[in-house]
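User: I'm preparing a small set of examples for a lab meeting where we compare how different chains pack in three dimensions. I only have the primary sequence for this one, and I'd like the structure in token form so I can line it up with the others. Please keep the answer compact; I'll paste it straight into my notes.
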Amino acid sequence: MRLVKLALANVNTTVGAFTANVDRALELARRMAGEDVTVGVFQEQLVGGYPPEDLVQWQAFVDHQWLQLLRFARETQGLPTAFFLGVTVSHLGVRLNCAAAVAGGRVWGLVPKEKLPTYSIFYEGRTFGRGYAGMAETYRGVRLGDMLFRFDFGTVAAEVCEDMWSPDGPMRRRAYSGAELVVNLSASPFRVGTEGTRRELVATRAADQQCTLAYTNAVGSQDGLIFDGGGYVSQNGKHVMAAPRFREGHACVVVDLDRTLRLRGENTTWRSDREAWAKESPLVPVVEVPKEAFTSRRDSLRYPVPAQGSFFLPAPPEGRPPRETFCEDILDALALGVGDYFEKNRSFKLIGIALSGGRDSLLTLLVAHRYAKRVRPEDPGSLLRAFYMPTRYSSEATREAAQTLCEELGVPFQVVSIEEAFERELEATRVMLAGQPVTPLTEQNIQARLRAQRMWNWSNSSSGLFLQTGNMSERAVGYTTVGGDLMGALSVIANVPKTVVMYLLDYLQERLGLSGIEKVLARPAGPELAHEQVGEEELMPFPILDACFHLFAEEKLTPEEMRPVLAELFPQVPAERLHGYVEKFVRLFLQSIYKWVQSPLSLHIGNLDLERERALQLPVVTARDWMERGG
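Assistant: Understood. Below is the structure token output for the 631-residue chain.
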């Protein structure tokens, strides 16, 4: 047996907070050493934080990372653990996103990332250079390039994030060159449902390359990107460990590297593939880490035995039911996003929400309360403020729903009428129109803008974080007011479709049993900016709206292609009406781009994101001729 203990670390970093980031890592590193960890794996861009975006163009931003990496090495000297952590270096004018190998107080090598994502929310190809097979250079006396590391316990390969996502990544040649353990340092943003994909990918790559693969991920939120942490260890395709998500810390597991080598010898397909590769390709060079420079401590390690006490019987089921997993993951991600934005900005003392008594502001409050309960469990409401600002169109039922919920959560609640201000603005608008009538839509927008102005005034004087409460579906079709309900310092559910908002509230009502939620759900969804206003009557049924949104914005179908799909999805709706909904959605979506590009920073939780710098980058001014047939 050749037992090694692996630790996957998740550190909540902040871009540019080099000292604090490394301090957090050092604390975990010392704990690992105290637990006889052999290899500690930290995340991508640990030192500088992720994503650094254009900050890497400042030479000082890059150079100071090296000093902190040396500090990490210096302060871990004497520990019996080899560490891998992410850092940026600038070599001959090229910025490289590297995995650094540190052991015995020394940096033994820097392995640059090769696959640079420039899609969805990623822009790495714009700022970073790539590593490549056979790269063998030197940076400040340290080897830089394509290499393996041989320790007293075995041979390790390091790679960074996207390198694992490509089947043609560096893992293949490094495993063929003798790497038994591959460590992958990642900063992969949270996306709904991606946990299973990552786990399957780790197992697939470990099986393909017949290696032990340890993958770890960043945790925390940065500028609306949410990192859920966690990580996986797979040995030759067999799942070994899943690290906890949505928390800072580390998780450990013991593996036998002799088992990895034995399984390679038994796998004739892997052997023949390796032989064919070796005939045409050079071996990846190995950096030898001598025992006098670093020695691991493995005497106390014991062979990993299954928790169920049998090597043949199935293990206890992991995880939660699908509905619970879906809802809890989204709620945890949103709460983490709110909390880190609130804390890391260091500009805010309170969190404020304008409650309408409707579903969107209700869910936003519940998300904020979820965060507050974590940091102030004895009195979460002391961190929050809720305001209800009625006009003549506001119903007593919505006020009661908002007040009831705040009482149940212990959140201070104030009613601040905007009726008089609404009347004054109406009169001022009439004067400016010089006799022309004020349109009904303008009347609605005046109310929304007054509420936003009041919230900004509160924010300025109280150092409060003003949360914007609009959902993704209504934002997509412009069912929002520029300067009004589209305003805020952070959009919490701006990338949560309306059908998901309602699904989450149903789930929370089942779990929490709050009367305030029940009162909100008892009424049809509507903004109450006009008499008896119902959102689905003014737009279309939300399930149809969200289906149109998915098919058009995510699947990139034309209206003609969307119609038969919707007919199959909603057979109870007449075809003519569905055609009308499609036309209405596309028209509203394209003419509303100018609106949603003005909205505040939002939390990213899926593959589709209505933030122009993120997943869906569209021209603000566009025509729809390209959708028409013929021409």
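A couple of notes for your slides: The chain has 21 helices and 21 strands. Residues 322-345 form the longest helix (24 residues).

User: Perfect, thanks.
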